[in-house]
Fold:
Amino acid sequence: MWLRNNWLQFTLILAVVAIIAGSTPLIGLTVFLFVAGMLARTWSRHVLDQVRYQRIIPENRAFAGEKLSMTLRLANDKLLPVPWIEVKDMVPEGAVVDEQHLSQAGSPNYLYLSRSTHLSWYERVSWPLEFQAMRRGYYRLGPAYIQSGDMFGFFSAERQEEKHDSVIIYPALYTLPELGLPAERPFGEKKGRERIFEDPGRIVGLRDYRPGDPMRRIDWKASARHQSLQSKVYEPSSTLHMLVAVNVHTLAHSWEGYVPEMLDRVLSVAGSVARYGFEAGYAIGLVANGAYPESDRPMRVPVGRSSDQLARVLEALAVVGPLTLTPLERVLEREAQSFPYGATLVCVTSRMDEPLAASLRRVAGAGHAVTVLSLAEGSFEEDLGRIRVFNLNTTVRALEAARASGDGATT
Structure:
């Protein structure tokens, strides 16, 4: 280490000694050390030029427990060879199937994935890997740290690759029969597919107010212009709407933290319901009292029927965190204002309190089909009126155990 940091001073001292002593071999050694040192320093300064590091992830979304293929690639796009190079890439703990090349990193829940090799001119080296996460979530890969140097090992060069890649793992899903829910009208939502509803999101005109019109239907600006109450006319629609509401609370108080396993069960059931609705032809949506990661933006996927709607809902369920921004009852009160008559609300929760129960009763009283799917250890004490409640805690635990033993059903 001392020679590496002080090679020029050492070479100068050796040159002075060689000249005073008049030693030809010593002078030759001095010249060799000087040339080798300059060559090594120049080499190390440019050894990482045009060296590219890539993570190639063809598909970065999967369900919990599934494996994804991933390739690490190093490329030297220049004439100057790279005599040695080491890459340390930060990866989530327990997600990369490659125990031999993993080591501790400075960040919690992350490990270093290391690879070392050498590269000749214009050479590429690839390492195939597998990514497997057993829990839903948003997984970030990177940054990567690259180190190389000259062929003599005198000098080294380092670089940090700031580019990050991400993998999203959806929660495990179950079919409704697996969850023990009724095969016919599991949420009491419809008797036939020809029923016509009014879509509050599409206003087609105005008409005079009629006794019994709800206050939210009145257009106050138009009423002021006409000097009489005017009600909005909504576009008729036969589309069936289903909103999945998720309560991320797993303990009585937020300061107590949360139960990860319980939250994952809630999200798995919510995703299963969303998949059922999507495949049955519903316009589906999602709301939750949790937030997106590293954001204070509340979790919300507006009701829709686009081809990627289910993927959007599952992605939201994959990344939602336990931090509560607002009580779920407030979220429901806000969403209920745009709910078409006869729409279906499915609330998935492991906890119930009186404010949430009251909000659900109001939604049901407005003509909507409301069902509560409980992941609680026991029955809810709050009065939910005629709202149907299914406790799925024991069933989901059994399904988890079956999948862990390799006997569970596929997603």
